[in-house]
Design goal:
The protein is α+β, with helices and mostly antiparallel strands and 163 residues long. It has four helices and nine strands; from the N terminus they run ααββββαββαβββ.
């Protein structure tokens, strides 16, 4: 499910994710290596035309991973052990974005954010098709998880304080 469709289906998680990714400008991206083992890498995140996008250096390992196996996981960058902003966790598939007009809009978005953009064709661009999403918040008396998938929709689970 493309990001804009996910945001319409589950604004409770999507809005938190967008806020977090805009503030951090970074997430941890998990991909699958050729041997099947996991790879985790920091990756910048941008929203462009209703798509959650990940730009990558040309021929980077994470880009080559996604070209071979599109499964991925995205995790917000924790802000300390207690992580008061909560955790965003997304899984799905990376879609390689090859349309030149869309890639130019991504470059414009990046240029507006950091005053730089990669030159064509020397970067990889993927967007996320969301399959599952979660938001977890831990705090005194307020710990809970929001989880979502297309089949079951949004669910909330309260997490009891440890005794």
């Amino acid at each position: 499910m493309r990001w804009d469709a996910f945001a319409a289906a589950c604004p409770e998680i999507a809005s938190r994710a967008e806020e977090r990714f805009r503030a951090d400008e970074l997430a941890m991206l998990g991909t699958v290596r050729a041997d099947g083992s996991p790879r985790i890498s920091p990756c910048e995140v941008d929203l462009v035309d209703g798509r959650l996008c990940f730009g990558m250096m040309w021929q980077s390992h994470k880009a080559l991973d996604l070209r071979r196996d599109p499964r991925l996981a995205v995790h917000s960058v924790p802000h300390g052990r207690m992580n008061p902003e909560g955790d965003i966790k997304l899984t799905g598939r990376g879609v390689e974005e090859l349309d030149l007009a869309f890639r130019e809009r991504y470059r414009e978005t990046l240029r507006a954010r950091i005053d730089w953009a990669p030159s064509e064709p020397h970067f990889h661009l993927f967007s996320l098709d969301v399959e599952t999403a979660a938001f977890l918040e831990f705090g005194e008396g307020t710990s809970y998880a929001l989880t979502w998938n297309e089949a079951e929709g949004l669910r909330r689970t309260d997490i009891p304080d440890p005794e």
